[in-house]
Design goal:
The chain has about 130 residues and is mostly helical. It has helices at about 5-20, 35, 45-50, 70-75, 95-105, and strands at about 30, 60.
């Protein structure tokens, strides 16, 4: 039923009936949040390696994690968060932040360590945090 279907399925069906011209983006260049820590289980290293073999992605979506605070924590841990508390990107340190971010794509590992408990919401099906 539409209520229990994943939102992507609903969106796809709406596109079909709308007649709106659209293009499906490459999942190798516009990767989902599994890139970070493997989504629900695992560490995502194999997935990141497969993506890297195709070149750098254009976009890494910060999905496959529940809640804004965990998403911000994960982005910061990977060096993919640039906003400071004052709304700037940190005067004078933006180049350093970009270098850290690029290093994460080269090493395929988060520069600021593994996920913390507060970053991981319990999996609604399996019950426990599935990050390794």
């Amino acid at each position: 039923s539409p209520v229990t279907s994943p939102e992507q399925n609903i969106f796809t069906e709406l596109l079909k009936i709308s007649g709106i011209k659209h293009k499906v983006l490459s999942s190798q260049k516009y990767v989902n949040g599994k890139w970070y820590d493997g989504g629900r289980g695992g560490d995502g290293l194999q997935y990141r390696g497969d993506i890297k073999a195709q070149g750098l992605p254009y976009v890494v979506n910060n999905n496959w994690i529940v809640g804004n605070i965990p998403k911000i924590m994960r982005a910061k841990r990977w060096g993919h968060w640039f906003a400071e508390e004052d709304g700037t990107c940190g005067d004078g340190v933006l180049q350093e932040k970009i270098a850290v971010m690029l290093r994460s794509f080269d090493l395929l590992a988060p520069p600021y360590g593994p996920p913390q408990a507060a970053e991981c919401a319990p999996d609604p099906i399996q019950g426990a945090c599935q990050h390794s």
